[in-house]
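Annotated sample (chain length 99).
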Amino acid sequence: MTSEATRGLALDFASQIAPAGSIDIRRFFGGSALVRNGAQFGFVMKGTLYLRVDEAMRAEFEADGSEPFSYRAAGREVTVRRYYAVPAHVIDDPALLHS
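Output written by the structure step:
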């Protein structure tokens, strides 16, 4: 997925989450970060929306089969448990994504 396509997808998700213009989209490694009031709360990487989760949200996301963000670095797998992929049924339902 190109950086332009990733940015477009991030803009689409941002418009579903909050009113237009209230979420900034910034470059984030190979993807796009979603930032509100100066704090990053999510990102789009390789076509997947990841959101920052707390303990309660993590349990819900895991129950829905979501995986934490991970990447390979220096020959090993790194898992970032602060960010989880948004479950497919949430992506498919704008009302759930907004809440």
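Annotation: The chain has one domain: 3-98.
Annotation: The domain at 3-98 is CATH 3.30.1460.30 (Yope Regulator; Chain: A,).
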